Amino acid sequence: LESLEGKKGQPRFKPPFPASFGLYGKPTTINNTETFAAVPWIIRNGGAAYLACGKPNNGGTKIFSVSGDVEMPGNYEVPMGTPFSKLLELAGGVRKGRTLKAVIPGGSSSPVLPASIMMDCTMDYDSIAKAGSMLGSGAVIVMDDSRCMVESLKRLSYFYMHESCGQCTPCREGTGWLWRMVSRIDEGEGRPADMALLDNVAENIMGRTICALGDAAAMPVRAMIKHFRHEFEAKIASANAPAQA
């Protein structure tokens, strides 16, 4: 809305919310295109029929954009509640017959889930939330056993540092700190104290910004540390091992 009005592209304080005071001060409806696209079908067929397409409390269908280490990346529209294993099968399975390692189920901001958890999930809001992540945008990133989670987090952290508009200090400064610390670990210069510091910086970003980009940068960090801490600690230990005589 700010950009449409010719202003700097930064998030607005809320309230007032766009539904009452939006573009040029007029009531404005903002939703994903996917949401708008479902409206005509619901008007024609009714809300009950839409809910029946999915599962209780998670009705309808959703388009999942599956990318990463799969044979057939693409967009797949399936009923809510479809098992993740079925979605993975539709995408051709893990590439080259490799083993599934982890999945980011709802876009880069959603916490990563290891394969052992993800394979028991169904693709709906309640199931993914119960597993400790978010369905979010439905952008599913599949990661096989060749992936280094430290390198993956470094790339994600760089993206959020680059995307920060700079309006909020915790996000403007914190995203840079996260990227630099993860980079240091990945490049063999990590310190044992970095693990606690990473988690602390991420915690102090969350809930302290006008928009959700700060949380989006922090959640992947905390989830990677939670589920794949051993990979980070291994790189730090290697960096601090005594030199051989």
Characterization of the model:
The protein has 245 residues and is of the alpha+beta class. Helix content is 44%, strand content 13%. The chain has 9 helices and 7 strands, in the order ααβββαββαβαβαααα. It has helices at residues 33-45, 47-52, 84-90, 115-118, 125-131, 149-163, 169-186, 194-205, 213-239, and strands spanning 61-68, 74-79, 82-83, 100-104, 113-114, 122-123, 139-144. The strands form 2 sheets. The protein has a 5-stranded mixed beta sheet with strand order 2-1-7-4-5, with helices on both faces. α6 (149-163) packs antiparallel against α9 (213-239), α7 packs antiparallel against α8 (194-205) and α8 (194-205) runs antiparallel to α9 (213-239). The chain is flat, with a radius of gyration of 20 Å.
